[in-house]
From TrEMBL:
This is Glycerol-3-phosphate acyltransferase. It comes from Billgrantia montanilacus. It is found in: Cell membrane. The gene is plsY. The chain crosses the membrane at residues 75-94, 106-130, 150-170. Its EC number is 2.3.1.275.
Length: 187
């Protein structure tokens, strides 16, 4: 299906790399957590570059999803297109499969497919990031909320949201280990 390829290609554009190159600052894969995502860019280069990274990573897969919806694909097929965006972000071929953790990209995908679920998860993420000051805790809790919220707010998408959550949790295994040891970096 061509939309899967489009999803993967759009997902594999890592917003953090573009933002940091344009700003003339260090590649986020070379410092901090070495993750090309919002949290690492925030710690390394400040809130404006982090917000630009978040925006790019959230919107990059939307055209593929709008096409899937416009073609009248079933919710599960739309979800597979969304999953291809997340896989592109997490495992980009051009960057030797070293990508991000898919939190911002999952937010963007869910904003198109399940907007109320996405907004509930974003609210939880913001509250936890503010109170706990640890992006991993906020991300893991938000990912855990997504399938539960989708049962109520988007029942046709529960299975695909569970797949998104599984990917985000898998991408955070090192963070989970660091949280267990008490040495996860804060925001």
């Amino acid at each position: 299906m061509p939309l899967l390829g489009l999803g993967y290609l759009s997902g594999s554009w890592l917003g953090a790399l573009s933002v940091c190159r344009i700003a003339g600052v260090e590649d986020p894969r070379l410092a901090g957590s070495c993750n090309p995502g919002f949290s690492n860019v925030l710690r390394l280069h400040g809130r404006w570059l982090a917000l630009a990274t978040l925006l790019l990573d959230a919107i990059k897969g939307m055209p593929a999803l709008w096409l899937a919806m416009g073609l009248g694909l079933a919710p599960w097929a739309q979800g597979v297109v969304g999953l291809s965006v997340l896989l592109g972000h997490s495992y980009p071929f051009w960057h030797r499969f070293r990508g991000g953790k898919a939190v911002a990209s999952a937010f963007g995908v869910m904003l198109v497919l399940t907007p109320w679920v996405a907004l509930c998860c974003a609210l939880l993420w913001a509250v936890l990031a503010w109170r706990v000051r640890t992006a991993a805790v906020a991300s893991l809790a938000s990912a855990g909320l997504a399938p539960l919220a989708s049962v109520w707010l988007a029942p046709d998408y529960v299975i695909v949201v569970m797949a998104f959550t599984a990917l985000v949790l898998a991408r955070h295994m090192l963070n989970i280990q660091r949280l267990g040891r008490g040495d996860e970096p804060g925001l």
